[in-house]
Amino acid sequence: MVGGHGVRLSERSCVRSAELFLALEADAGARGERSAGEVLIASAVERSDLAAAFPWLLKTELCARFDDEREIVCASRRTMFDDLIIDEHREERPDAETASELLAAAAAARFDEVFAPDQGAARLIERLAFAATALPEEGWPDVSRDGLAARLPVVCRGLTSFAELRRCDWGRALGRELDQRRRGLLDEEVPDRIAVPSGSRVAVDYGQAAAPSGAPILAASIQELFGLQSAPKIARGRVSVAVHLLAPNGRPVQVTTDLDSFWRRTYPEVRKELRARYPKHAWPEDPMNAAPTARPKRRKSRR
Question: Which of 39, 209, 230, 288 is least surrounded by Cβ atoms within 10 Å, i.e. has the fewest?
Answer without folding.
Answer: 209
